[in-house]
Amino acid sequence: MTILVTGASGHVGANLVRALLAQGRTTRALVHLDRKPLDGVDVEIAEGDICDPVSLRNAFQDVDVVYHLAAHISILGGEWSKFESVNVIGTQNVVEACLQSGVHRLVHFSSIHAMSQECTNFSDGRPVLLAESQQDLPYDRSKAAAEREVYKGIEKGLDAIIINPTAIIGPHDYRPSHFGEALLRLANGKVPALIDSGFDWVDVRDVSEAAIRAEERAPTGSRYVLSGHWISLCDLAALIEQITGVSAPRLVCPLWLARIAAPIVTAIDRFIGKRPLYTSASLRILQSQRNISCQKATQELEYHPRPLQETIIDTLRWFEETGQLSRPLRDVSL
Predict the structure, then answer these.
(1) How does DSSP classify residue 76?
(2) Cα separation, 312 vs 293, whole angstroms
(3) Cβ neighbours for 301, distance < 8 A, ≥ 6 positions apart
């Protein structure tokens, strides 16, 4: 059995490929541009671009299972055309390639953000209201539209399931991700102020393991919300201070003030060539509901997210090993 992972060089992809190989499974990594996260990994590499259906023909040949992770992720505004071409049309191309190649199962990685902010409860066991309003963020709408493409494939006979993780953090975060960079800046003392809000964080390794179990046992059309632990940014910074010894920011900005300042901060970051983290979109994310339930995943996939402290320690330790921390970590026991 051959497994194909799209987006294999991304944060989740790098962890998922390693998890599949650890099980002794034949794995093929679809790579568009960046191979560095897979350096030294004994995996078959297939070059391709989900936006180019022709390039997918060889990559999907003799493939039994596809994990579709490739996506454009951004917390900046005004990128709908990119979101549409990669997240929506790219997923459409993957679904069609699965149908044409006789793929037995598609595991589609969506996001908690595919669900509308109007939801009062994000749960894998309740009816889902997908993001489709113009008031929803462009990224959210693109992930919701991608899910609709998967369901169209199911109607045509494709065996597919959907995974909806929350904010993913963990090791092998090479680029790094937005959330990984936020941890790095806190650990390196480069965050001047915090925002009075928080989010649900989940370990990338727990997400990968749950996705593999879902591939093996979930009924067609199933959806699984993979949440972890909600924590405020203030408590997260305090935890990082405990691990690193770097003082957490003492200034805490109320959310209403952060919303006013966000466009200015974003413009300054872009002007000086710094990757913006506090944007109007990211503040919308921090206003998300806390009521995120993974009960279905727990019952059907034996999903039990590890303690957040373990995730933070392991993530920062990986950043330390790759030379991205300004000072060594303390010897912190769990």
Answers:
(1) S
(2) 21
(3) 210, 213, 214, 217, 218, 224
- Extract the tokens encoding 218: 């979930």
Please give the angle made by the CA atoms of 177, 116 and 262, to the nearest 5 degrees: 50
DSSP state of 86: I
Q: State phi, psi for 184 to the nearest 5 degrees.
A: -60, -45
Domains present along the chain, CATH in parentheses: 2-169+201-228+290-305 (3.40.50.720)
Residues 6+ apart with CB under 8 A from 147: 108, 110, 114, 130, 162
The full length of the chain comes to: 334
pLDDT tens profile 3-12: 999 999 999 9
Mean pLDDT of the chain: 91
**Dihedral pair phi/psi, residue 190, rounded to 5°:** -110, 20
| Cα dihedral across residues 72, 234, 14, 63: positive or negative | negative
Q: 153: phi > 0 → left, psi -120 to 50 → alpha, else beta; which? A: alpha
Cis peptide before 165 (omega within 30 of 0): no
Q: What is the pLDDT of residues 186-217, one digit of tens each?
A: 999 999 999 999 999 999 999 999 999 999 99
The answer, yes or no, to whether residue 120 has pLDDT greater than 50, is no
d(CA 263, CA 281): 10
Round to whole Å and give the CA distance between 297 and 225. Answer: 7
Give the integer Cα–Cα distance in Å for 32 and 46. 9
pLDDT for 240-266, tens place per residue?
A: 999 999 999 999 998 878 788 878 878
Q: Is the pTM of this model over 0.90?
A: yes
Sheet with 26-31, edge to edge strand ranges: 44-47, 26-31, 2-6, 65-68, 105-109, 160-165, 223-226
